[in-house]
TrEMBL record:
It comes from the Bacteria. This is 33 kDa chaperonin. The gene is hslO. PANTHER family: 33 KDA CHAPERONIN (PTHR30111:SF1). GO terms for biological process: protein refolding. Redox regulated molecular chaperone. Protects both thermally unfolding and oxidatively damaged proteins from irreversible aggregation. Plays an important role in the bacterial defense system toward oxidative stress. It comes from Sulfobacillus acidophilus.
Length: 291
């Protein structure tokens, strides 16, 4: 059983709301599946943490959320998705990107993602998609997520993300904390939270060393704090053969005929890399079903 979870908290009489996430196991699974190099694994991990944060208020029947960055850096498009039950998955266009460590000794996520492009959030609800996006600020993902929150929700926010990756690509710590100040929150409380965030450093290292999210929250929020129950998070891809078959069956007859002539088709899920093989006879039945 994994140890990933999300926890929500409020303080200052409900005027401060917080979401904290640990997603080490899920990010490590993403790294393994995509064989991502360290900077690519860090980009996926930060985005997966954002997805877990932004989806915290979705109801169980609220549909999945997708968070993506599409910049001009070498990793290309990065996508993270999460279901209301905490199932998460991610994909990255170019996982085999290697960049020098920054002068500060950090992974060059901003350079890998790029500074020109978009940070986008999509919410599927009752078969409809709702989308909002902002231009990238730095490509560091945390800065871009903060920019999205301020622009889209018009609420003062603070975000701290971290992914700790060994040189061999192994992820040993991933997570973050987000705090939002609702209208009416006193300025002195906001200043106190800002100071707490400045002191909240090396989140990924602390998570790797065994710190829990509750302790991180207590370093940022003023007492009294109300902590909601933990919500489990886990890597899980929900691709299905029947869904892929339906997609193939919706192709134009001419395209299906070409695949049949080739002896069949193989479709690989971009998230979990599972390959689904369809023989010529199976494709023929799909074609006949759409006549």
């Amino acid at each position: 059983m994994g140890t990933d979870y999300r926890i929500r908290a409020t303080a200052a009489g409900g005027l401060l709301r917080t979401v904290a996430v640990i997603a080490t196991d899920a990010v490590e699974r993403a790294q393994q599946i995509h064989r991502a190099w360290p900077v690519a694994a860090a980009a996926m991990g930060r985005l997966m943490t954002c997805a877990a944060m932004v989806s915290a208020d979705i109801k169980q029947d609220g549909g999945r959320m997708t968070v993506e960055v599409d910049g001009d850096g070498p990793v290309g498009r990065v996508v993270a998705e999460i279901q209301p039950n905490g199932a998460m998955r991610a994909r990255i266009q170019n996982p085999s990107v290697d960049l020098p460590i920054t002068p500060e000794g950090k992974l060059a996520v901003g350079q890998a993602v790029g500074q020109h492009g978009v940070f986008r959030v999509l919410h599927e609800d009752a078969e409809e998609w709702y989308q909002s996006q902002v231009a990238l600020k730095t490509g560091e993902i945390g800065d871009d997520f903060l920019h999205y929150l301020v622009q889209s929700e018009q609420i003062p926010s603070a975000v701290s993300l971290g992914v700790l990756v060994r040189s061999d690509g192994t992820v040993i710590g991933a997570g973050g904390v987000m705090v939002q100040a609702l209208p009416g929150c006193p300025a002195e409380i906001i200043d106190s939270v800002s100071q707490g965030f400045e002191n909240l450093t090396q989140i990924s290292r602390r998570l790797a060393d065994g710190d829990n999210l509750e302790s991180l929250i207590r370093e940022v929020l003023p007492e009294p704090i109300f902590l909601y129950p933990r919500e489990s998070l886990a890597w899980h891809c929900w691709c299905e053969r029947t869904t892929i078959a339906h997609t193939l069956g919706s192709l134009p007859r001419q395209d299906l005929g070409a695949l049949i002539a080739d002896g069949g088709a193989e479709v690989t899920c971009h998230f979990c890399r599972t390959a689904y093989r369809f023989s010529a006879s199976q494709l023929r039945r799909l074609r006949d079903g759409v006549e």
